[in-house]
Automatic annotation (TrEMBL):
Keywords: Signal. SUPFAM superfamilies: SET domain (SSF82199). Gene3D superfamilies: SET domain. This is SET domain-containing protein. PANTHER family: SET DOMAIN-CONTAINING PROTEIN 5. It comes from Lophiostoma macrostomum CBS 122681. PROSITE patterns: SET (PS50280). The keyword Signal applies. Residues 1-17 form the signal peptide. Residues 24-177 form the SET domain. The keyword Mitochondrion does not apply.
Amino acid sequence: MLGTFVLFLLCILDAAAFSVSGPPEVYTVRSSPGKGFGVFAAVALEPGSIIMRETPVIKITPPPLHEGFGHAMREVGVLVREVFETLPKDSQAEIMSLHAYSTTTEQERPDYDELVPIFRCNAYYSGNEIGLFPKIARINHSCRPNTSYFWNEQLNRRIVYATRPIGVGEEIFVSYIPLLQTSTERQKRLDQYGFKCTCAACAADTHSQKSSDRRRVEIRQSINILEEHSAIDVPGIVAGKRKLQILASESRQLVDAVEEEEVADYYSQCYRLAAIFHANIQDWEAASMWARKSYHLKMMADATSPGTKEMELLTTLILATWEKEVKENATSQVWH
C-alpha cells in the first residue's frame, strides 16, 4: 500500500509539473456583459490547469489594522503612491485602467487619490503584504467560482488554477470574499466593490437560494465543529466509539454538502476532515480515499506549502497504519 502511495505521489508530481509548464495563452480578456472586462478560457481547461502566474506590480507592507475599520486607507494610499511613481508609464496606465469603486463623499475629499480605490478594489493579501496584480484583477467574481488561487512566497507570484473543467469561451471566475455566508451577507461584503452579484448562486430562484444559504451556513458550522475534534484518536469505551461514528457520519455529510454547493475552495479541508474521522473509526479504505483526494488538491494548488506537507504526512500515516493492520490480521488468521 505504501508502494501504491509512492506511485500516486509521482503521478501527482508529474501532473503538477505539466500544468505549471503550460502555455501562457490559455485565456483572453474581453468585454463581459454587465461587468466591463472579463477573463475567458481560450482553450479547454482541466482541474489543476494553471491559468495565470503573476508577480505583483505593487506590493506594500500595510499599516496596522484599526479595530472595526481595517487599514487606514490614507496611510495605504501614501505607500501605494510611492511605489506607483517608480513604475514605467505602461505599468501605470495598466493600473489606472482597472475598475475602482468610490463613494461621492470619498471623491469630494480634497486629498482624494483615484489610485486608492483602485488598489482597494483589486489588491490581494500576499503573505504579510498586500499586492496588486493587474491581470488577475480582470477576473470577475462569482459565489460559485470555477477557479481558485494561492500566493507562492518563493516565486513571489499569485497563481490562479482551474478547480473544475472549463470549456472554451467560458468566463473564468474567482471569489473576492469568504463564501460560507448567506446571499445577503455575501452581497453586503461585495458592496465595497460597487456591484451586485448576479452569479448562478445569487440569481437562483427564491427556493434554490434559500436552500443554498442554508447549506452554506451548515457547512461553516460543521467545519468549525469538526475542526475542534479533528485530532487522530483511538476508539476507547463504547460511548467514545459511538461519538467517533457520529463524527465520521457528519464528515461524510459535510463532503456531500460542499460538493453539492460547488464551493471548491473548501474541498480539500473537508476531505481532510473526512480522512481523519474515518481513520478514527479505523475505516482505512475510506480514510485513505479522502486523504488522497485532499492531498491531490493540495498538490494541485501548491506542492511546497505547509498544508501540502501536512497532508502528505497524514496520507502516509493512514496508509502505513492500514498496511500494518492488514498484516497483523493475516498473521492472526494463520495462527488460528
